[in-house]
């Protein structure tokens, strides 16, 4: 990437006229101001991107519901609506958690936070596929794969919250320790509960699917 401050140290700069030097100084000041505002702009863009992607994910899921063309298909149609509602609230909970994180402690996200957020959205984007799989065949294998994607998304959400809050934690060692402990505890809790639900899905997949929403962390 081009570094504007390197120009001021070059021989070419010393050959510039006073007017040209002043113009270059103004350009450097503008770049410096833009760099200071960049974390805030990234925060706004991430929030907007999260809103857009999650809205698309929910829209795709509802489009997976096939209408009942025959009376014999009506119960399956109602079952698919229930599956959609469960998936809807699971994804909506992810949106809400991200909203809270960006509202209360992610003020200056960096590139690592953005990457974790992108990975989270990419993982959530798989939920329409998992949901369609369950709608077509609510087998233990389908619900288990839904649970695996759900688990990965939960872990990535913790990463977004942790790395997003790191700039805030630098000013407080106590807060840093508390955030680390909270993140570790949440990962352990997510792992244990998700493992329980995955094992439960091998026996009663419909109940496990419902509990994925009920036990949303």
From TrEMBL:
Topology in the lipid bilayer: Multi-pass membrane protein
Pfam family, one: TMEM175
Gene Ontology, cellular component aspect: membrane
Cell compartment(s), UniProt: Membrane
Regions that span the bilayer: 49-69, 81-107, 147-165, 186-215
Chief location category: membrane
Catalytic activity from the UniProt record: K(+)(in) = K(+)(out)
Keyword line: Ion channel, Ion transport, Membrane, Potassium, Potassium channel, Potassium transport, Transmembrane, Transmembrane helix, Transport
GO molecular function, one term: potassium channel activity
Family membership: Belongs to the TMEM175 family.
The protein, known as: DUF1211 domain-containing protein
């Amino acid at each position: 990437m081009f570094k504007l401050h390197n120009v001021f140290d070059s021989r070419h700069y010393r050959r510039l006229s006073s007017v040209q030097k002043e113009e270059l100084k103004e350009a450097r000041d503008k770049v410096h101001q833009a760099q200071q505002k960049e974390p805030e702009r990234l925060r706004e863009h991430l929030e907007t991107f999260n809103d857009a992607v999650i809205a698309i994910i929910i829209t795709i899921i509802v489009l997976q519901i096939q209408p009942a063309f025959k009376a014999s298909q009506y119960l399956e149609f109602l079952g698919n609506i229930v599956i959609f509602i469960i998936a809807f609230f699971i994804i909506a909970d992810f949106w809400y958690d991200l909203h809270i994180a960006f509202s209360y402690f992610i003020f200056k996200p960096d590139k690592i936070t953005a990457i974790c957020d992108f990975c989270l959205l990419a993982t959530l984007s798989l939920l329409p596929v998992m949901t369609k799989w369950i709608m077509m065949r609510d087998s233990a294998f389908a619900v288990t794969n839904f649970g695996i994607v759900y688990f990965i998304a939960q872990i990535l959400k913790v990463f977004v919250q942790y790395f997003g809050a790191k700039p805030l934690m630098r000013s407080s060692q106590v807060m840093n320790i508390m955030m680390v402990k909270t993140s570790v505890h949440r990962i352990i809790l997510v792992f244990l509960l998700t493992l329980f639900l995955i094992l439960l899905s091998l026996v009663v997949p419909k109940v496990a699917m419902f509990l994925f929403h009920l036990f949303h962390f």
